[in-house]
User: What shape does this take?
Amino acid sequence: MAGSKGRRRFGNVRRLPSGRFQARYVGPDGLERKAPRTFETERQAGKWLTVVESEIIKGEWSAPEAGEIKLEAYGRKWIAERKLQPRSRENYEDLFRLHIRPHLGGLALGAIKPQTIRTWRRTLLDGGTSEPQAVKAYSLLRAILNTAMKEDELIRQNPCRIPGYDRYHTPERPVATVAQVLALAELMPARFSALVIVAAFSGLRWGELAALRRGDVDLTAGTVRVPRKLAALRSRMEFGPPKSEAGNRVVTLPAAARLVLADHLDEFVGEGPEALVFTGDKGAVLRSGNFRRAVGWAAALRAAGMPEGFHFHDLRHTGNNLAAATGASTRDLMHRMGHASMRAALIYQHANSERDREIADAMDRRITKQTKRATAKAKQKPTKGKKATRPARKTASDGTAGATGTPMARKIKES
Assistant: This one.
């Protein structure tokens, strides 16, 4: 075609029996394609070919039929082929099934535009979907379409490029005081007291605590190893690796947690190294729902004076704040808490076990100090002219109820 007199440099145009003009070209993949429509004039057909040629030169061309693949089929395949932990896979499947497929699944990839995304998000929010869920669904859709654009080259641009749609305001989670943590532990059945203490002062997540085995605990060194977690899937409980590489760590415990954990191991845990440290009444693995019912979680929170909306996971924040108050660096804190991010990935390699021991010792000093302060406050003499009364073990406004004068508080005070 190119170089011949009277012939176009790229593609060709021919007149059809109807009198309209058809444009054709050979794509980078060697296949001949026709314009999706015919044109009234030869000049219009030539302009269309010029646009296509420009896209090929700039590397922006994609096979027109590729954009006709439906999102439902592509999204399902994307999730199935992705390397994901079982819990993450189920979460992705649920987000796609509940929030993406019903509204966008029937659309071709190439037909999804930014305006489509804006309308979809508004529909979700107006239909009662919470903003956090809408953000998670948007982020998943963006990841799917990123693959369609960058790896499979099915679409030219990702329509999920709307500022602000991938973020939502997260209220600051409540933080329990040391006195409140001790009060909550005292209100637990005996086999679950250590679970609360270790959760608060180690920074381990629920799934990491539930997967902890006797062989992971070194009482001499005062450390716990976190090589696995327990995930609650739709139909089963499954042990697997931690949430990320950073989650596979060794954490040093302050003495307050070490002493309680030692007693717990003696009383409730089997002798073998594979024996689970924290189990239910009948020795079964811990399930969060069963645990809350067994301990009367909501009532115990109220009795301990816990902040409104407190979750088990929030116990981590108590230990995190204590560790931060010791002057621990961001790198130290991220190692201790098992946090993972692109920036932290390299830093974790240099986490220092000696520094972790210093953090745990400093945490222990603060725990003891706050426990003594709470005890002293409870023993203060009544004001002059008022009859002395025995302090009642009920919720106080400062969250110290149940934490003073108890065996656990005395043990920590004396340690």
